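Re-run requested by the PI after the first attempt was lost when the workstation crashed. Everything re-entered from the original request form. Ligand of interest: zinc ion.
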Amino acid sequence: MQYNPHSLEKKWRVYWEENHINETLSETSKPKYYCLDMFPYPSGEGLHVGHWRGYVLSDVWSRYKRLQGYNVLHPMGWDAFGLPAENAAIKKNIHPKINTKSNVDNMKRQLKEIGAMYDWTREIDTTDPGYYKWTQWIFVQMHKMGLAYRKKMPINWCPSCKTGLANEEVVDGKCDRCSTEVEKREMLQWMLKITAYAERLINDLDKLNWPEKVKTMQKNWIGRSEGAEVIFKIKVQDGSEYDLPVFTTRPDTLFGATYVVMAPEHQLVDKITSKECKNAVEEYVNQAKAMSEIERTDVAKDKTGAFTGAYAVNPVNGKEIPVWISDYVLAHYGSGAIMAVPAHDQRDFDFAKKFGIDIIEVIFSENAKRDEKGQLTEAYTEDGTLINSCDFINGKNVSDAKANVVEWLAKKGLGKKTIAYKLRDWVFARQRYWGEPIPIIYCDKCGEVAVDEKALPVLLPEVENYKPSGTGKSPLAIIPEFVHTTCPKCGGSAERETDTMPQWAGSSWYFLRYINPKLNTAAFDKKDANTWLPVDCYVGGIEHAVLHLLYARFFTKVLFDCGCIDFDEPFDRLFNQGMVCKYSEKSGKLEKMSKSKGNVVNPDPLVEKYGTDTVRLYELFIGAPEMDSEWSDSGIEGCYRFLKKSWDWVLENNNKYAREDNKEVLAKLHSLIFKVVSRLESFKFNTAISAFMEFINFVSKPEVKKLGFTKDTIEKYITILAPFAPHMCEELWQVTGHRGTVFEAKLPEYDEALIDEEIIEIAIQVNGKLRGTVKVEKDAEEKKVVEDALKEVERLVDPDKVVKTIYVPNKIINFIVKG
Ligand code: ANZ
Ligand code: ZN
């Protein structure tokens, strides 16, 4: 019998479907395992080999978990609302609903070709009213909890997409979707109070088995700064006084404050500005409005500002210092005002030099840069000895002085310890058609009222014109039948909110919907959700490190707080697969595969030529899964030959089994099982495949063939290869006399005593402290040991922060980590 992937692959896919092989069991004593892919948005471009890679990886892992005896949930669905889908539809001039449907059909066909064990009975689509009903329901809960609110504020506006954007969607001042320069627009906006969760979103990262890199990105995005709030009294020309709190991370430098700066948007600016300064201040405020935040916070930017004519009293020494406004102070960070210490902050130094303001040194160090007269030539920002301050801190170091000053301020009621976050509330409204309508009604009498839960979903109306209007309102605003409604409270006539939710809404909770995808009395069943979640393994690209992953964590915490679930983190383990790249002659670099670069490789013809199992194998074989790797078609033949060799080996020996295995064969088999299991456990799919290749080369040698093989050996080989090449292994399972699916079999175990290569345990230290152990083959390459060990301590160590690695072969490995 020849290896003929095409007919057998088709046959097995039909078998799986007809016999419900891939469906998650509802009644079982098996432990659960939830393996989830980040669901795709249905794009017309379909899947390229880069997308395949992530899906194959999670599928091999799911099938492996199934062989280990788990009841595996491995679902798939569509993140189909939002800008990308809508922009694509507009470009093609096809209604987003129709375009989305045809994209889903095509992508589903492609996903099926992967042969993944998705439980399609649980398929979800975020644009399905039965789904978004519950997205709206969650919004209503947030509204009840005071977490969804409306506020007039300057938001990021993309003039090309004609909609507001969240901060997370603005990259280097440009729209994340279309790269157009983002503008500021003052608009009344729906917001979600994600800042109320800032502390928990940072602290709970410690619980998660996520790559350190992603945790760091989230931490930086949330941007926690410990410091103090200090109250300065402002004296105004007309004799009135105001309290102005400033946020500082350096209370120790309070005696060096020589002026105060407020953001141009600060609400006190009008009140404190003197008559003489009014014109200049107004002009400056208008000029600052036109600038992007990126420009404003650029340290290299020439400093500008205007004097308000008012003075502030330094609470520690009663000194009166001038109050300025400048665009380098942001309105929405800290308190929107600062005490400026030019000697120890470079921005303040540049500003003071330009406007001739005093520079008072309060931290002395030999290392400060000075000119020949002994004057500072730049701000000194490191540690040193306190000078020019008062008795209780002079002579101390920065950290002691900080503590003393905060204590003193608190006692006098002039300040307190506080924490500032960079994170802002989430702008949750879009002025676009293709999204979930925000379920709010405005009534003249009752004000802003949430739609009654029983009246959900608020259906997205079918319209002719779905293009953005650019008026600041969504296209829904011109549909009278949609807008006019009655108030849920008083029954009087009222109007609906016409903004829709951002594309991230549906994906912020979809992992919960897979549990009970068809339930229409609730978003999910609480008991079932508590059983199945958190997700055990979540697989997807690093590009979602802050957006989707932060939002999903936020939603989960809100649902926890309102008592809907008993866990407060959605994803236990996260794996980011690397990108598949193509080498570009033009740039001389590896480039990410994308339609716009024209370097996309379509998997369909490869599947046609070699079969799915070969393409699956090759996707994983091209490189370490967490790394970016280069695609070239040339290696794929090797994977095909390997599968054919495996096929031939089983068929040649079928029904001619040896009674006993030769010792060397047995040793090779057990070391194969050991290697595959240990490499899979550390997500080294590529080297797991090499182990199979080595084994098959060994057993195909004429002198080894002569020895013969037992049925047990061959069955074990088929079983452990099955997660990688499921179709072929199903067929071979039949060939060796079995009925039913190979995925009902048990994962073979290795016997350490039988392995000829010695397995040793290596101690892993981080900065000299024992943090774990890793089993490797004796005399394994250092590179492999380092990789495995890093994987083992992934939760503690960011590989980018390892400054030195010391490896004592076969004994101990020590990572020196900075920071
Ligand atoms: C006095 C001072 C002295 C400061 C010194 C620094 C060094 P991070 O670490 O980013 O939190 N700041 C406070 N609010 C600001 C705002 N709304 N816009 C711009 N800058 C603001 O930075 C905190 C520091 O940034 C604060 O500490 C404040 O300047 C400034 F030697 O206060 B500092
Ligand atoms: Zn009313």
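Saved to the shared folder this time. Residues 49-67 form the longest helix (19 residues).
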